[in-house]
Design a protein that fits this description.
With about 280 residues, the protein is of the alpha+beta class. The chain has helices spanning about 5-10, 35-50, 50-55, 65-75, 85-95, 110-120, 155-160, 170-180, and strands spanning about 15, 125-130, 140-145, 150, 180-185, 195-200, 210, 220-225, 230-235, 235-240, 245-250, 255-260, 270. The strands form 4 sheets. It has a 5-stranded antiparallel sheet, with helices on one face.
Length: about 280
């Protein structure tokens, strides 16, 4: 994903606000680390802005993110026990020990999709699924799910009963609405009419990852999830180009840091209040 041409013309690189000095993790050229660098840079940026909330609310939902917060905390103590780089390598070794695909050893690296699934996972269900008949309104509760990451799939648009058409020109919010209500082949047990599969969140997850897989959708600054009243703000975008991941972190004011550990090592590139995002 990239910033739209119209927006790019109106923004300038400017000095970062006081206290913003972290330029992201430097790329490991021996064991390609760019997937870890990008995702962890976004999460560390969130941790620094919401340290208290992270440490008090996440233990009830995610053991992996709780452990991540403890490691991040070690880098922020007055007499810190590890640097950001040591924290990155520790998290990579810890995550890769449970899954070979996430080891990122040598020049194979790993991908952000699988990494986000491992790091952002929640321990209990947050999502509820049910089938509802549009003819007689009979509803069947199906299952619970713990997904907090979603892969944009062009088929969702065609399967939505509202007939949204293609994804062209649609936003993340519109895509989520399409995801939450889908046609199905499950017959109603009372009238045999094909039922609609509905999905909504019972519990608000702390993070949600949207994977667009080159589908051109507009990136919203804020989104809401089906069943949840709270708004989610955009805290980062990860890009993939030329076999390399880079990221942009988005702070509470809307300012953006561009982080590329391969080409902009130790350099903070800060853009002030970019509002419109597009593919």
């Amino acid at each position: 994903m990239a910033i739209s041409k119209r927006t790019t013309k109106r923004v300038r690189i400017c000095p970062p606000p006081e206290g913003i000095s972290f330029a992201g993790f430097p790329w490991d050229s021996e064991n390609w680390s760019c997937a870890y660098d990008s995702l962890l840079t976004v999460l560390l940026s969130v941790y620094k802005e919401h340290r208290l909330q992270w440490n008090t609310t996440l233990p009830n939902q995610s053991a992996s993110l709780t452990q991540l917060g403890q490691i991040f905390d070690n880098t922020m103590q007055p007499h810190r026990s590890m640097t950001e780089l040591e924290a990155r390598d520790h998290i990579r070794d810890m995550t890769g020990a449970d899954d070979q695909e996430l080891q990122a050893k040598g020049k194979q690296g790993t991908d952000v999709y699988h990494l986000a699934r491992a790091i952002l996972k929640v321990d209990n269900h947050v999502l509820a699924k049910s089938h509802k008949c549009r003819a007689c309104n009979h509803e069947v509760d199906d299952s619970k799910d713990s997904r907090v990451h979603w892969t944009c799939d062009a088929g969702l648009w065609k399967n939505n009963p509202a007939r949204l058409g293609t994804h062209k020109g649609k936003s993340v919010t519109q895509w989520i609405n399409a995801m939450s209500l889908q046609k199905s082949n499950v017959p109603c047990p009372l009238c045999q009419t094909p039922m609609i599969l509905g999905m909504k969140y019972d519990v608000a997850p702390h993070f949600v990852a949207i994977i667009n897989h080159e589908i051109k959708i507009i990136v919203d600054n804020e989104i809401t999830l089906p069943g949840i009243d709270n708004k989610y703000r955009l805290c980062g975008i990860i890009y993939y180009e030329n076999y390399h991941f880079v990221c942009r972190t988005v702070d509470k004011s809307g300012g953006i840091c561009h982080c590329d550990g391969q080409h902009n090592r130790n350099q903070v590139l800060y853009y002030e209040n970019i509002v419109t995002f597009k593919k």
